[in-house]
């Protein structure tokens, strides 16, 4: 069975339109549709506020612009209203609230856990319809629980209060960032993806022509995702992704070196130094670990201690970055 993952936010009108078009694509019973979390406006306050009021806040306007980067939020709302009418989403159309959607994503994740893709899709449709056509506040837990129950998912009031689904949603948000999801909606099948509310024909072609994802051990996938998060300048996210590996494979040099990079990137310099010193005890010829230790000491204002490590790294590698680091360290250490 093929799986199409839809990375989307429940407050993204294009995601709601994309869902309608995905339904029209009639992909067949051998294709599973799974909804994954994406937050357009992750800084939305826990206490929901009116959308018109939020649009006067430059921070909120910037976040909502992610729905369609080439249009202002007002232009996007006008355009999407026309498309929604064509898709017969209504009769009334238009969100009135700016909710934080993290809890909504928890409910959606729990729907899949409880009843698979069919129940999850029913919950997604109910939440989107409530937000866009009924003026409901899907940031309110009582409202979420009631809407989920209407879609066939009971017990969400207690689940939300207990924190269920929190770890899963956080993990999936990091995974989405690691694989390059940058807008809502994004449709992913294997190693192929398309963004935006695509036509049914495009979605059918995506499923039919998608390149299968190579099956890798979970540990390898986790390591690659952590590396991608570091490349995306999210060292704390990389550490969160590495946590299971550090718990289960803490002696693996590749895991520890990646953790050291994340510690360095998040200014946890003591942990970075300890990890790198431990690595170099076993592999003193690792020039990158040696270089990173020198940089860590340098950032800790221990320039005299940093210099020997940077010189050794430069002697072991022709990387010009190493030579430049030696020069700067010499100047700061007065050597």
From TrEMBL:
Any one Pfam family here would be TPR_19
**Superkingdom of origin:** Bacteria
Q: Name one GO molecular function term.
A: oxidoreductase activity
Q: Which residue range or ranges hold the DSBA-like thioredoxin domain?
A: 4-206
The UniProt entry's coiled-coil ranges are: none
For this protein, the record's PANTHER family field holds: GLUTATHIONE S-TRANSFERASE KAPPA, THIOREDOXIN SUPERFAMILY PROTEIN
Q: What is the designated name of this protein?
A: DSBA-like thioredoxin domain-containing protein
